[in-house]
Amino acid sequence: MLERPDIVLAAIPLLTVSGLVFQSATVAGLGTGLLTAPLAVVGYLAGLALVVRELLMGPVAKRAAES
């Protein structure tokens, strides 16, 4: 059975790659390279935001506050 840590660890690389995938799909469609360049960075920032959120508001932070 999947637990929260498993889901978080699986979501980090998926979020990181999602920016590159979205950028590739947009470039292949109607977008230009100039318009889609920031999309690669968005995926990395989403992955980083998930890590920071888990550290500051997740179970690790709750355990640290209790002790």
Can you offer a commentary on this structure?
The protein has helices at residues 4-28, 33-57, 59-66. The longest helix is centred in the first third of the chain and has 25 residues, at 4-28. By secondary structure, the protein is mainly alpha-helical. It has a domain at 39-67. The relative contact order is 0.15. The mean pLDDT is 82.
- Total strands: 0
Cα end-to-end separation: 29 Å
- Percent helix, as a range, is over 70%
Question: Helix/strand-derived class?
Answer: mainly alpha
Radius of gyration (Å)? 16 Å
What sequence of helices (H) and strands (E) makes up the elements?
HHH
Q: In terms of topology, how is this protein built?
A:
Blueprint: H1 4-28, H2 33-57, H3 59-66
Helix pairs in contact: 1-2, 2-3
In brief, what are we looking at here?
The chain has helices at 4-28, 33-57, 59-66.
